[in-house]
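Box 4.2: Ligand-aware structure prediction
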Amino acid sequence: MALLPLLFTFAFIFLLYQLYQKLRFKLPPGPRPWPVVGNLYDIKPVRFRCFADWAQTYGPIISVWFGSTLNVIVSNSELAKEVLKEHDQQLADRHRSRSAAKFSREGQDLIWADYGPHYVKVRKVCTLELFSPKRLEALRPIREDEVTAMVESIFKDCTNPDNMGKSFLVKKYLGAVAFNNITRLAFGKRFVNSEGVIDEQGQEFKAIVANGLKLGASLAMAEHIPWLRWLFPLEEEAFAKHGARRDCLTRAIMEEHTLARQKSGGAKQHFVDALLTLQDKYDLSEDTIIGLLWDMITAGMDTTAISVEWAMAELIKNPRVQQKAQEELDQVIGLKRVLTETDFSNLPYLQCVAKEALRLHPPTPLMLPHRANANVKIGGYDIPKGSNVHVNVWAVARDPAVWKNPSEFRPERYLEEDVDMKGHDFRLLPFGAGRRVCPGAQLGINLVTSMLGHLLHHFYWAPPSGLSPEEIDMAENPGLVTYMRTPLQAMPRPRLPAQLYKRVAVDM
Ligand code: HEM
């Protein structure tokens, strides 16, 4: 009972606060907020679609209240440019939910760090060291090993007589590539042996990732209503335990690397080795090294697998495009060898296919929110300091004002007009743009293109029997990262000589 007057008081304060914001600032238009909860209960689960719908009613820049926090969503390329180029520096902070704050030890990593000296330093480590073209090239054998392992595994399954007429869950194979690639790249570890059995450390790693997701999801609503947070105390103990478990595994791996380096006298290319050998040069704390390693896992694992799953769905729905990509592969690679990343420059159509998939299905359709560190004007409206700004890159990439037949999957459009997708053309922003642009963009593009190239060169792809291409469910699952609502099932059929389906394993 004592709660009721308290709630009324909070509601009253909220209304006063909103009135103050309205009188002081010219805020972007948007759906009418309710006291205390704002628009939280009006937002449909697939947020970027909901925001795109609201943009149709209120215009390309809208205000949406998550509880008492103002969120501004922009949905066209001009406003995206204002956010990510003209006002980039004032809009480069991050909003940290309580769980993100815990996971990142108050932004001591990269993803959750505010823009400031620490951010500039770790970003420099990423640009000059971790994602330098030299290191990307040095780590190429790992990517090629994993992609050929995927081909071998699909081949085994689809040529097994027990599986005649069966369809396969595509994401199972893509997820394995993404998982092994990222753990090898970051930790120098393949936790899974050639029989597909995961070792003890790998099981611990998977359990930590799953637990992190569970903890992150457990706070959702209360997160946005600071006055009510005391009703939903953060599970301090659970977070502390999670952090300790993560640190313990990471430290064990770091020690293994230190010992190996002392023994061999040389450092390897993996991120963990790179960070440990650069620790003094860049004055990196242990929390920052651990934070960076886990940032790469969080940001780099699902994004690539999801992009390829969507691309494969489009290729099965559009047999014309699939055939054209295969013709190009046959012409350039032939039927006697497998693709490598050095072939990319001779495969323009394949590159266009990857780009078109990332246009229609960016895995992070609202990017990550940027927080204003000052009062800013965007599109003639005020964005008060502390608001969160989202760029709906999904909506921008489907805007009929800048794209011809936007919902059509037509890779040829980039042969007619080259469009950059790494942050220079504000019509196509799957990796964002500006100072917070994805540092793993080139790595992501290489892996997505390589996976697609191998899948198309080695197999014909069709929908499961009884399902027509048009019937493939192209709806999205809710969440920050956009999985297909119905995971893609498909029927692969080999198209190359059997000896080309062997994994090319490398030990590094
Ligand atoms: C297809 C694959 C990928 C896509 C579409 C993608 C997209 C994005 C986007 C949209 C952002 C947010 C940019 C912003 O806030 O403005 C981001 C940030 C980030 N991505 Fe990626 N990404 C991909 C792959 C990767 C990979 C493979 C890695 C690393 C191994 C990675 C590491 C990161 C990191 C560390 C950030 C945070 C950057 C910051 O806050 O400054 N990403 N990515």
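In the box above, the bound molecule is protoporphyrin IX containing FE. The pocket of protoporphyrin IX containing FE is lined by residues 110-111, 295-296, 299-300, 303-304, 307, 362-364, 367-368, 430-432, 436-440, 443-444, 448 (CB under 6 Å).
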